[in-house]
Amino acid sequence: MKRCTEEISQAKKTKIENGSSSGEHLHENGVALKVQVGSRKSQLALFQTNYVVNELRKHSNIEYGIVTMNTIGDNILNVALSKIGEKSLFTKELEVALEKREVHMVVHSLKDLPTSLPSGMVIGAICLRENPYDAVVFRSHAKYKELNELPEGSVIGTSSLRRIAQLKRCYPKLNFQSVRGNLNTRLRKLDEDQTYIALILAAAGLNRLDLSHRIAKILSPKTCMYAVGQGALAIECREDDVATLELLSKISDEETTLCCVAERSFMKVLEGGCSVPVAVHSYIKDNKLTLKGGVFSLDGSKCLIDELSTDLNSVNNGVIERDSKVHVGIVALHMAEHMLSASETLGQDLALMLLQKGASEILKEARMENSIS
Ligand code: DPM
């Protein structure tokens, strides 16, 4: 791992690596130690990490340092993500640094975090969700404003099986081709390569990098439901690091957390990942959490979509409170356990409903086709 920011002083480094008691970063002999935050090196990842650090600064006077590193996902650029077959593509190296106590926390896009985290790791906070939907971005100077204006055979760039499966249903005459690289690389390929007429990208990433002007259209969930956790930032830390968990609890967003617990629990039961087309849409209204979820065949010809709701107010809504305070990898120290349990149960129930209707056949077929195509 290569450090790109200021070196931690030797004394502090030893302290961190020795794994002295949790809470060590808050004060030592009256001197605040630095909290080290791990991040990928891409512009988007660094923006996200700086955002989280700024949010944390509003609640504490602790000093922060950012430690950047490359991940497998950053290094392998010529293969579609769904083909690489490694679950924690964008997270592994960062998690190793967490485990070695080189960093206290790591900032991720929640949708890049698998539903099962390495043992001893948890998500200590999920921040307020950005726009969770997908967006259409056309090649610069293209005359189009919507996908339905495109001529037959037009090429759309995306490596997401979820996006392709859903869009093929609505736009059977469009072609889809993989595009990789970080956001700016993709936009450059779009504008310069003459391969793609448009890309499908998460609105959240574009908004964060001040590229909202490139968004021609936001796709409604009727056309394209989003990926589990899309638009939300998650901060991972060690499960036994109570001081960091306390610190992180200050920047967690309750509604986003409940929605994402439900989405991730849905995904976990379906054993989804980026190698299968699974999509969701969730929202809270009048204390009722609704989760809509779908599974699709790769070509979109088969799909199962359903939705369920749960009353978050009711302590006694049939949901058994669990012993574990970890909900699909998420710890929310100051949130009501009955709400987190209700959200987790909602995701499981919706997944079981779809499995009863034949979701496993669709997913099995999609996994097989994806591995051989
Ligand atoms: C995952 C997917 C993609 C990313 C698959 C999916 C998109 C891959 C592609 C799991 N991670 O969405 O169905 O389009 O080729 C990723 C992006 C963000 C986080 C970029 C994007 C930014 C938005 C966010 C890549 N991970 O989706 O356009 O923080 O949610």
Based on secondary structure, the structural category is alpha/beta
| Helix content range | 25-40%
What molecules are bound to this protein? ligand DPM
| Portion in strands | 15-25%
Question: What Rg is obtained from the alpha carbons, in whole angstroms?
Answer: 21 Å
Global morphology = globular
Largest sheet strand order: 2-1-3-10-4
Mean of all residue-level pLDDT scores: 88
Q: H/E order of the elements?
A: HEHEHHHEEEEHEHEHEEHHEEEHH
Q: How many distinct helices?
A: 12
The biggest beta sheet is recorded as:
5 strands, mixed
Fold and architecture overview:
With 373 residues, this protein is α/β, with parallel strands linked by helices. It has helices at 10-18, 43-57, 72-75, 81-84, 92-99, 161-170, 183-192, 203-208, 242-249, 254-270, 337-356, 359-372; strands spanning 34-40, 63-69, 105-109, 121-126, 134-138, 155-157, 175-177, 198-202, 217-218, 233-238, 278-285, 288-296, 303-311. The radius of gyration is 21 Å and the shape is globular.
